[in-house]
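During the second half of the funding period, the structural biology subgroup turned its attention to how the target accommodates small molecules. The most pressing case was flavin mononucleotide, which had performed well in the primary screen but for which no bound structure existed. We therefore specified the complex as follows and requested a full 3D prediction, including the ligand pose.
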Amino acid sequence: MDIILKAAVRAPDHGRLAPWRLTVIEGAAREKLGQAYVNLKRRLSPDQPSFDQGKELMKAFRAPTIIAVGVSIQEDHKVPAVEQIVAAGAAVQNMFLAAHALGLGAMWKTGDLAYDDNMKSLLGLKASDAIVALLFVGTPPKLPPAPVAELKGCVSWL
Ligand SMILES: Cc1cc2nc3c(=O)[nH]c(=O)nc-3n(C[C@H](O)[C@H](O)[C@H](O)COP(=O)(O)O)c2cc1C
């Protein structure tokens, strides 16, 4: 975890603002994340009061460790908000690469929970801040084949 977190904070970071806010959620603390999934589902689906709570709760238990990546956005700073956000995205990618280099698997997830003010509050963030990733980290039962990089359509030359 030390290697993975150090990789995060070494991300390119305009103005050295360290805009990322990393929260490691593991072991029993995943219950709090699971509860956040349950509460959000309850709020988003008031017409479905008998939804499967266990299913929502188990979303937090898909990996032994989840690293939530928030961005404490400084508004009206000479470094625009978008650059602060992409720096946090780069921190996520660095963690991804570090995890893979260590033989671990990682999955970058967002979903509705990333845009939920209660979840932001759980992470000590303001409503105007952002959550850019819930990075699920663990040992995969087997690694899927790497997707083939396709340049078609997304690259052009001037
Ligand atoms: C900002 C961002 C949010 C993402 N959110 C989700 C998500 O909520 N659910 C999901 O299945 N994949 C999501 N992904 C994509 C995958 O997590 C990511 O491609 C995967 O972890 C790496 O697998 P790959 O090597 O097959 O691309 C997201 C990716 C990014 C960049």
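Two results from this model are relevant to the next phase. Residues 107-111, 132, 147 surround flavin mononucleotide (CB under 6 Å). The first helix runs from residue 2 to 9.
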